[in-house]
Fold this sequence. Notes:
The chain is of the alpha+beta class. It folds into two domains: 11-147, hpI Integrase, Chain A (Orthogonal Bundle); 149-196, no CATH class. The chain has six helices and eight strands, in the order H-H-H-E-E-E-H-H-H-E-E-E-E-E. The strands form three sheets. The chain has a three-stranded antiparallel β-sheet. The radius of gyration is 16 Å and the shape is globular. Residues 145-167 and 169-196 have low confidence and may be disordered.
Amino acid sequence: MTNKKVGELTIEQFMEIIETIKLGGPGFDANNRVATILMIQAMTGMRLGDVLALKMDDLLYKGNSDGYVLSYRIAKFEKLGEMPISEGLYKLITNYAKESGIGKGEQLFPISGRAVQKILKKVTDFLEIDCVGTRSFRDLHLRSVENAIREINAHEYRCICLSEKGKCLNLERTSCLGCEYYTAAIDGNCSDNMQE
Length: 196
């Protein structure tokens, strides 16, 4: 059995896929759960299985000096891991959990890896984007795109600003109230107010 090569995902493709998953389309319903899973992969570099195994209790606040931390089990190496995460990612996950009725101790993403892959396949087929799998989202992080993903909208937790491109993915089409680098989003374009 040969492994199918997964292509590199561009920022534009990432934004288009996430927005389409959140809105739904022909043959697939809107799915905030899958969109959140893929965003976590892109923002942390975690493997799909490790993201799916997360529980609400794995999200920690360790005080002002350490900030927000994600504690998780690295299944491939049978080790426990801990990584610092942004306040924006913390809010994205807690907002998702609240909307989904997920309580303390419960699994955040009660869905199989295969189900995530099937939904992603339907979306990428619809968008005519080839060779994209869940690994593509992890690779996005591993290629240092994390440095471009700065802040998730402080109000809606749906806005990802890209400082190097001057573009903003604002899935709710609201203003980027919490963005560190940009202040106003109009149809996906932000005004740059960052002083260099």
